[in-house]
Amino acid sequence: MSKDDSIEFEGTVSETLPNTTFRVRLENGHEIIAHISGRMRKNYIRILTGDRVKVEMTPYDLTKGRITYRMNHACGRFAFAPAASSWHPIQSGSPPPAPVMNMSSLPAGFAALALIAGALIAPAAQAADTPPATTGDSCIALSEGQQIVRAGADRDVLLRNGDQHYRVIFTASCNSAVTSRRLAFETQGESNQLCGGSRSVLKTDRASCTIERIESLEAAAFKRMARQRSR
Fold first, then answer.
1. Which residues contact 81 (CB under 8 A, 6 or more apart)?
2. CA–CA distance from 169 to each of 26, 95, 135, 186, 216 (Å)?
3. Strand 69-74 relative to strand 31-36, pairing
4. Is 91 found in the same domain as 19?
5. SS3 193
6. Distance (Å, rounded) from C-alpha 163 to C-alpha 100?
7. What pairing do the DSSP bridges indicate for beta strands 208-217 and 133-134?
8. Among the three residues 111, 132, 153, which one is the final residue of a domain in this structure?
9. For residues 132 and 216, is the Cβ–Cβ distance under 8 A?
10. E strands along the chain, which residues?
11. In a 10 Å sphere around its CB, with 0-12 CB exposed, 13-18 middle and 19+ buried, how is residue 2 labelled?
């Protein structure tokens, strides 16, 4: 199975976490951490505990040690609610009020699919203690003490900003970041803040790489990922 192959499986949301992240329990007893991503994430606020969801993952996610899985679909129809303008994930650490949701029942044949997916994700699920927090469209203030880990910077770089740690994810490949003599974050010409939602860019010698989102990391996770990329 290639890294582009994916498996869809379904389960029940057992806990709603901040920043469009959810704990999902499969019928075979395994649990994973999943989060909304892409266009759907921009409007999505919260899934009610107990609702059925469909999650998509790939074996490549597991081999790379990723613990957050993309939740691309829901098993039914649901309603979006507008996000409050004053809500900032990094500052509040909690999601805004939940939207109304109407979910359909599981399709036939789920049991076999869940068993296959559960066997694949079990090792990674045990490591998924704390999901990364995603800033979405919010901004973080940049300090002078910055460290950018750019080894293997195809789709993201690691950022230490003072005593805070982040994974900065691009909308497209940013290979120029690996060899560039100059790296600087800019938001509408200003260099004192960094925002998700395609508002900021990473300036290199030859290009400007648009930033899709920013994920908050624990210090230990940052150090581990930095060591892996430096090998």
1. 45, 97, 98, 99, 100
2. 29, 21, 11, 14, 11
3. parallel
4. yes
5. strand
6. 38
7. antiparallel
8. 132
9. yes
10. 7-17, 21-25, 31-36, 52-57, 69-74, 76-78, 101-103, 133-134, 139-141, 146-149, 156-161, 164-170, 184-187, 193-195, 200-203, 208-217
11. exposed
Render pLDDT for 123-172 as a digit per residue (tens, 0 to 9): 444 444 444 455 556 788 898 888 899 887 778 999 999 999 999 999 99
Distance CA 134, CA 126 (A): 21
If 0-12 CB within 10 Å is exposed, 13-18 middle and 19+ buried, where does residue 33 land?
Answer: buried
If one counts the domains in the chain, the total is 2
Pairing of strands 156-161, 164-170: antiparallel
Q: Is residue 1 domain-resident?
A: no
Condensed to tens digits (0 to 9), the pLDDT of residues 86-124 reads 333 333 344 444 433 333 333 434 444 444 445 444 444
For the record, the structure tokens of 162 come out as: 């003072």
Element holding 111 (H helix, E strand): helix 110-127
Q: Are residues 220 and 109 in the same domain?
A: no
Question: Which residue among 132, 164, 185 closes a domain?
Answer: 132
Quote the radius of gyration of the chain (alpha carbons, Å): 18
CATH number for the domain spanning 87: value is: 2.40.50.140
